[in-house]
Amino acid sequence: MKSLYIHIPFCESKCSYCDFCSFVSNEEIKEQYVKKLCTEIRAKGTSERLYSIFIGGGTPSVLSIKQIEKIINAVQTSFILNENIEISIESNPNSLSIDKLQAYKDLGINRISVGVQSLDNKVLETIGRIHKAEDVYKIAPHLSKYIPNYNFDIMIGLPCQDNISVQQTLNNLIAFDPTHISMYSLILENNTPLFNRVKNKQIVLPNEDEVVEQYELGNQILSSNGYERYEISNFAKNGYECKHNLHYWECGEYIGVGLSAHSYLAGKRFCNTQNMREYLKGDYKPVYVEELTNDEKIEEYIMLSLRTSKGLNLSKLQKELKYDLLIKKQKEIKWLIQNNFIEKQGNFIRILPDKFYVSNAIIEKLI
């Protein structure tokens, strides 16, 4: 089965660290976009069964209830929804309301991800977030009443952020009993406002050792409260792992619709235009198509699977991609095992839990 990703590029304001395809826009453009988006969904509809749907952005919750309803209706008339389908939507705390939560529930949305980032208002202000901690405290108690499966996104490595800030944010969020928490490290993207402020020494970020400390602290707090780390940045209560993201990490096929959306089908990667004017003309042909070589598929499978706590399935790699990692990387695997970076359990190789934060260096040795 395939998954469906729906991109909503609109935000109330642009965060200083963000280089995603997102921007502030007026209501007329939003309405035009939703109309074209629904047309694209119907054009790409295959009447096949979907495993998961993820409405991301941007900030999808800035759209009206009616606009979200149009999108869901387009999906329902173009695909078959699996009986246990996961339908997720991203949101910001200040753009949520009781009415929206009720409407999302009525539309069949059964998972919501709330972009908190931090509960430290000084940190939020520094990175250009327009919500405040008070907005989170206002909406959080209502989430479980309407959508019991909900996630909080937080970030580490932010300016003005220290261990105490991370600890307080996590403890206060855990008190609401979410099913899932994502903890991402800041990636300083070129030419973003935050990048320029750091470059000009207007802002100082935590150093690498401090970020590792924040990550390990977060991991300790989450694990001690019943959240299992099933991927480097994702923690969930048992049975509440994000199905959509797992589908990506297992190299499953997916269809992407909307501005800049990517698809992966039959070993080929497709990408929509990032130009809003072009998109609104209604030409949904991809701006590029990339057919992955077998070597590229091998590299991607190794990279993605080793990010998960489950690890890399050696048998699947050999059966589907004709690649015997134990032979091809014999010396590297031996060294990594001897130095307690990875372990082999049956047909799986996985990164040891205390080495997750240096996973990039480990993965580089195996691809």
Description:
- The mean pLDDT is about 90.
- The chain has two domains: about 250 residues, TIM Barrel (Alpha-Beta Barrel); about 70 residues, Arc Repressor Mutant, subunit A (Orthogonal Bundle).
- The strands form three sheets. It has a nine-stranded mixed sheet, sandwiched between helices. It has a three-stranded antiparallel sheet with strand order 10-11-12, with no helix packed on it.
- By secondary structure, the protein is α/β, with parallel strands linked by helices.
- Helix content is about 40%, strand content about 20%.
- The protein starts with a strand and ends with a helix.
- Helix 1 runs parallel beside helix 2 and helix 3 runs parallel beside helix 5.
Secondary structure class reads alpha/beta
Tally the helices: 15
| CATH arch. level architecture of the largest domain | Alpha-Beta Barrel
In CATH terms, what is the fold-level topology of the largest domain?
TIM Barrel
What is the element string, with H for helices and E for strands? EHEHEHEHHEHEHHEEHEEEHEHEHHHEEH
Oligomerization category of the chains in this entry: single chain
Number of strands: 15
Q: What is the helical fraction, as a range of percent?
A: 40-55%
Rg for CA atoms? 21 Å
Biggest sheet strand line-up: 7-8-6-5-4-3-2-1-9
Our measurement of the CA-to-CA distance between the termini, rounded to an integer number of angstroms, reads 28 Å
Main beta sheet: strand number and arrangement? 9 strands, mixed
The CATH superfamily of the largest domain turns out to be: Aldolase class I
In CATH's first tier, which class of the largest domain applies?
A: Alpha Beta
Share in β-strands: 15-25%
